[in-house]
């Protein structure tokens, strides 16, 4: 039973300039615990595909399921890590990491213990009382990961979370994210322009092509690191 599934999915954007076919006839099943990367040229539909999994809008045609249920809109079952960290500058790191819990009405002593646990696990021990501007870019992305993990999402969608970082920080963080998600057995989809990053982190790389967006090929990574 796949955790995420797209069946016969096509998506058309309609605006004042007309209609454009962004994705055509996509079939994709993602197994529990699998880490899948989406790569391909700009405009091939990577963000559209991720948005459909996130429930930001329904596909024009076809069905999208997460956790065996048809996606009906955004849900706390889906966690995110994006290129920008979206930390609030006036909140401490600890309070930033707790914001998803607050929105879900789940901030309490037990879940705050989980916040402290994850800040520690991700190398941010002692930083809970600091503010975002006091942290480096790599540290801030680790706060963003902690903020997602404490809400215990079923799946993670990663939209170029490393692309704004310096190379050595980027490699460190790829490693940390890959090992952390593998250890938790989390299912994840990563959108990236970086084929080396996709190959290093994934069990499977989906190469999308343009005109309109379609799956050109799928490459299984022979010996996943997990
Ligand atoms: P990628 O993430 O691979 O760069 P996108 O999913 O952003 O690709 O875009 C796929 C196609 O859909 C592109 O041709 C893009 O121009 C078009 N597109 C994306 N968003 C919109 C929108 N809101 N309105 C109209 N066309 C869009
Ligand atoms: P990372 O982003 O993975 O923490 P860096 O090389 O950016 O790696 O930072 C190494 C250490 O230097 C960090 O753990 C942090 O303590 C400190 N540091 C880096 N940048 C800043 C900054 N802008 N403000 C405060 N401390 C910083």
TrEMBL record:
Pfam family, one: ABC_tran
GO molecular function terms noted in the UniProt entry: ATP binding; ATP hydrolysis activity
Protein name stated in the entry: Spermidine/putrescine ABC transporter ATP-binding protein
Domain called ABC transporter: residue spans: 4-226
Coiled coil spans: none
Alphabetized UniProt keyword annotations: ATP-binding, Nucleotide-binding, Transport
Lineage: Bacteria, Bacillati, Bacillota, Bacilli, Bacillales
């Amino acid at each position: 039973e796949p955790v995420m599934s797209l069946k016969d999915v096509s998506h058309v954007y309609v605006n004042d300039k007309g209609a454009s076919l962004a994705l055509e006839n996509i079939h994709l099943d993602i197994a529990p615990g699998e880490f899948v990367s989406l790569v391909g040229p700009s405009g091939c539909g990577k963000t559209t595909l991720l948005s459909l999994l996130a429930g930001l809008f329904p596909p024009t045609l076809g069905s999208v399921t997460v956790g065996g249920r048809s996606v009906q809109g955004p849900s706390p079952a889906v966690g995110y890590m994006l290129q920008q960290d979206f930390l609030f500058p006036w909140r401490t790191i600890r309070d930033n990491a707790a914001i998803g819990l607050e929105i879900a009405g789940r901030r309490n002593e037990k879940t705050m213990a989980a916040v402290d646990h994850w800040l520690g696990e991700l190398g941010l021990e002692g930083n809970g009382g600091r503010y975002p501007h006091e942290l480096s870019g790599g540290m801030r992305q680790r706060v963003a990961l902690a903020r997602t993990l404490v809400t215990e999402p079923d799946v993670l969608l990663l939209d170029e979370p490393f692309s704004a970082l310096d190379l050595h920080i980027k490699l460190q963080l790829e490693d940390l994210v890959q090992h952390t998600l593998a250890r938790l057995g989390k299912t994840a989809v990563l959108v990236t322009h970086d084929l080396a990053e996709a190959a290093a982190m994934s069990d499977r790389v989906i190469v999308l092509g343009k005109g309109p967006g379609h799956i050109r090929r799928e490459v299984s990574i022979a010996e996943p690191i997990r």
